[in-house]
Specification:
single chain; 167 residues; mainly alpha
């Protein structure tokens, strides 16, 4: 088996006796993640009926590099994933989660609607999601039996004047 100069372990990740070691496991995990994100990108591109060449132009990524990503030979950086997401008109967060860069957030109708909105930019979506998440955390930390916004001073800000309702 071929070896790297100065390294006793074979290049394929197996030990000298032919068994596999921890390095091989790490290599398989990285390769699996690369194939997963590549396959997902290819499926999204095909669903959008966009050619590989068109997506490479839209994303500003070279055609050969994009092809290698789709085949699982390369694992793209977060920046490249963001460019591909923009080209596919997907949320970058979706690709980051698939690539293992971000943890998946719990599903909610609000989150799904924000991510699916084609009018908002990626930055706007992220800001709105951050605000939404902060409200959710605030509500979760409210004492049991008390609504998060029961401060009389704050509630008064949102009350309408009965005289105003009649006009």
């Amino acid at each position: 088996m071929p070896t790297i100069e100065g390294d006793a372990a074979p290049v394929d990740g197996s030990d000298v006796d032919g068994t596999t070691g921890p390095g091989d496991l790490a290599s398989r995990v990285v390769n699996s993640a690369a194939q997963d994100i590549g396959g997902f990108i290819r499926a999204q591109r095909e669903a959008a009926q966009v050619s590989l060449r068109q997506l490479s132009q839209l994303a500003g990524v070279s055609n050969p590099y994009l092809s290698q990503i789709e085949r699982g030979l390369r694992k793209p950086s977060a920046e490249v994933l963001g460019q591909i997401a923009k080209g596919l008109r997907l949320s970058a967060e979706v690709l980051y989660v698939r690539a293992g860069i971000l943890e998946q957030r719990p599903h909610s109708a609000v989150r799904d609607a924000l991510l699916a909105d084609a009018v908002l930019t990626e930055r706007q979506k992220q800001v709105l999601l951050d605000i939404y998440d902060s409200f959710c955390r605030e509500n979760e930390s409210a004492p049991p039996g008390q609504a998060p916004d029961t401060d009389p001073g704050t509630a008064a800000l949102y009350e309408t004047d009965p005289d105003e309702q009649e006009k």
